[in-house]
């Protein structure tokens, strides 16, 4: 029988005189971060700097806590993320760095430099063969991410409008893809319109980075040749007028994302941290954040990203939904079809489990874990 992966967990309680960042460092040490040879090695710390207007992203103090541990072992840490496909404040490196700085990430606050993984225009990438891949052959990963000797993921665990939840695999697989890599992961699905539900508000067109949405008689029309299938417009529509025309596109996205994460993690030391607080229903890529759907849970660390995500999911599913939230509003509707799954009840078109199932199949990790709780 295969050995269970170890996932270390601690809640957000602290004694007077003990900071939360110190508690995070104790968690990382207990989970074995310093068993990795760090001296003289470049260490990529992959995180999300938050879209401008979003306040749910992780504070820079978490990044500094991790970077300081690396520097204690004479490693050379840097924070990294790759550019986005969609409109916003992180489409190219100068804009991305400005966004990070405005949101509080700079060498003073984090104790290390910030390097945008896929370069100025999002085209500085390496095409990496994926071990055990079943969907793709290669992954287009930001060059700076792959140039690092050691990889650490520092993830804000939350909901997500297309993948159900945003955990370590999402942070790694989608986050480390170059702009072309992100397009490849999203490219199976195309967006359709329920005309009877469309209000002509034009919110979806503002979110579309491909100019694929126009309006005829005040109804949205999607140009399938231009549509990249990224799903941003679906998440932006509050009237459920937009949908994915390919029924298994979410499954395919989840599998591709797991294989991209495999490309990033294979053949080098990796360590993974997830912070489950401010659990918003949607991604931090939004220029806003809705109220949390669940109470704050705690901090997790593991060498196994699949086990880490599974542990976060398991604890999230046991949590009591917050009434004044998107999830709470859905559950309060008398005609709501209850899924008894917080992620599905928050975003009903997702199939989040496929990410973990496929990741386990390709050897990225195991869903079978032992949870070790620290006070």
TrEMBL record:
GO molecular function: iron-sulfur cluster binding; metal ion binding
Alphabetized UniProt keyword annotations: Iron, Iron-sulfur, Metal-binding
Every 4Fe-4S ferredoxin-type domain range: 189-217, 218-248
The keyword Iron appears for this protein: yes
Family matches, as InterPro entries: 4Fe4S_Fe-S-bd, 4Fe4S_Fe_S_CS, DUF362
Entry protein name: 4Fe-4S binding domain protein
Organism: Selenomonas sputigena (strain ATCC 35185 / DSM 20758 / CCUG 44933 / VPI D19B-28)
Upper taxonomic lineage: Bacteria, Bacillati, Bacillota, Negativicutes, Selenomonadales
């Amino acid at each position: 029988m295969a050995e269970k992966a170890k996932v270390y967990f601690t809640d957000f309680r602290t004694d007077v005189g003990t900071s939360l960042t110190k508690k995070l460092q104790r968690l990382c040490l207990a989970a074995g971060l310093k068993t990795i040879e760090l001296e003289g090695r470049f260490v990529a710390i992959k995180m999300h700097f938050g879209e401008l207007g979003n306040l749910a992203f992780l504070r820079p103090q978490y990044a500094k806590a991790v970077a300081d541990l690396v520097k204690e072992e004479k490693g050379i840490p840097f924070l990294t993320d790759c550019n986005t496909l969609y409109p916003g404040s992180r489409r190219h490196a100068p804009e991305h760095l400005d966004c990070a700085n405005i949101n509080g990430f700079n060498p003073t606050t984090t104790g290390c430099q910030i390097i945008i993984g896929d370069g100025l225009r999002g085209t500085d990438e390496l095409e990496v063969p994926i071990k055990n891949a079943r969907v793709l052959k290669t992954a287009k990963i930001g060059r700076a991410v792959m140039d690092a000797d050691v990889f650490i993921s520092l993830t804000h665990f939350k909901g997500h409008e297309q993948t159900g939840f945003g955990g370590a695999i999402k942070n790694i697989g989608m986050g480390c893809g170059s702009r072309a890599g992100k397009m490849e992961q999203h490219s199976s699905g195309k967006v359709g319109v329920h005309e009877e539900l469309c209000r002509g508000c034009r919110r979806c067109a503002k979110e579309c980075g491909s100019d694929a949405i126009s309006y005829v008689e005040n109804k949205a029309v999607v140009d399938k040749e231009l549509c990249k299938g990224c799903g941003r417009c679906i998440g932006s529509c509050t009237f459920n007028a937009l949908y994915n025309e390919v029924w298994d596109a979410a499954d395919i996205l989840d599998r591709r994302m797991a294989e991209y994460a495999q490309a990033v993690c294979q053949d080098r030391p990796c360590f993974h941290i997830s912070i489950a607080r401010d659990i918003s229903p949607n991604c931090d890529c939004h220029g806003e954040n809705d109220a949390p759907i669940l109470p704050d849970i705690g901090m997790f660390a593991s060498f196994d990203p699949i086990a880490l995500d599974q542990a976060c999911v398991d604890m999230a599913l046991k949590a009591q939904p917050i009434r004044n939230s998107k999830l709470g509003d859905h559950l309060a509707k008398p005609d709501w079809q209850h899924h008894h799954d917080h992620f599905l009840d928050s975003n009903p078109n997702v199939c989040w489990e496929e990410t973990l199932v496929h990741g386990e199949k390709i050897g990225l990790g195991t869903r079978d874990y032992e949870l070790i709780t620290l006070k």
